[in-house]
Amino acid sequence: MSLEGVIVPLPQLLTREDHDAAMRLFDTLVKHFEHSDPIGKGLKPVTLVRLVKNEVSDKDSFLRFFFCFIEEHLDGISKSNDFNLAQSLSRLGSFTTWTTEGTDVLRDGLVKFAKTLMDNFFLPLKALASKTPYNTPGPLSRLQLSEGGGIGTPQRLKSLRDDCLERDRHRCVVTRKFSVNEAQERFEKDGDNLKDDDGESLLPERNEMAYLEVAHIFPHSLMSLSSNSGEQKLSESKEMAHKILNMFNPTIIPLISGTDIDRPMNALTLTKDAHTLFGNFEIAFEHISDHQYKIDYANPNQFVRIIQLPVTRTLYLTPDQKIDHPSVDFLKVHHAIARILYLSGAGEYIDKFIRDMDEMEGGQVNSNGSSRIDEY
C-alpha cells in the first residue's frame, strides 16, 4: 500500500542546539537514575525510558514529551500549552546540586513517565495484540476486543484470512507448516495427488501440518473507538498510544486507520503457537533485507522453545503483488517493542500483572487501554 494520499503527521523538530542539549541532559538523567529500581518486581522503569528513546525514530517529539512530563510532575500543573524546552533544560541541568528531596521527586518523575508508557501503550498492546478476533479464543476471554463497530467484522476478517493464506501459500510464515484445512480440501479433490501452492506433493508433510490463523501486527484495540455522548472518538489513552506509536514511526497510524487495519500489510499467517508468541512479543522479525527476516525469541536465553528458532525466512509475495506484503515498517516497530519489553523487564512484569488481574474476581484489563496498574 502506497503512502500517496495518506496524511502523515509532521514531527516536532527542534533546533540542532536544543536537540543536542536535550539529548545530553536526557542521557545524564538516565545514567544517574538507571541503577535504581523503585517499582521492583523485575521492571526497570528508567531502562524502559532509555530503550524507548533509543528505538523511536522521532526523537525530537519524544524529548519534548519527556521533558514536558517531568516539568508537569515537578510543578504539579499542566504545561502542554506553554512548555518551554530551553527553560526546562536550564532548570533540570543543575539537578545534581538539588537537595535529596528534590532529586527523589525528579526520580519519581522518571518512574511515573515509564508507567505512563506502560499504562497507555505497552500493557494494552501486549495484552491484546495476540487477540485477532477470528475464532481464536485465548486465556484472557474477558478482554473486550473491540469498543466500536466498523472494523474486524467476520466478513472483513474472512477476506483478510483468504488474502493472507493466498499470499503466504497456505503456510505459516515462521514454521512453514501447511494449512490442515487447505490440505484436507485438496485431498478430497485430488486424493494422493494433492500438491502445495508450488506444485510439490504434500504427502511427505501429512504428519507435520497445522491449523493456521491470521495474526494482526497491530491489533484492532489500538484503533477502536469509544462512544462519548453519542460520538465515536478515541479515548484519552488511545490518543496517548497513538502519540507514542507516531514517535516510533509516523506512517503507521495513517495506514491502519479505520478498516485499513484489516489489510494484508498488517497481517501474517501463523500457527496458533506462533500467533501467541508473536502477539506476546516473545518472538519478532529482525529485518535483514527486502522481505527477508531473522525470526527469533526476544529473550536469547528462552528456556521453553515450542518453535525451533532462530530461522531466516524470505516472506512470500504474490506474482503480481496484488496482495500487499507484510509491512517492513510494521515489523520493524514490532521488533523494537519486543526488544524493549524484554530488556527492561516490562514484558515479564506485564505478563505477571495480567495473570494476577485475570485471577482476581472482577479483575480485567480494559481494551480502551486503561488498567489498574497503580493498584497492583
Automatic annotation (TrEMBL):
Pfam families: HNH_2. This is HNH nuclease domain-containing protein. InterPro entries: HNH_nuc (IPR003615). It comes from Petromyces alliaceus (Aspergillus alliaceus). Residues 199-286 form the HNH nuclease domain.
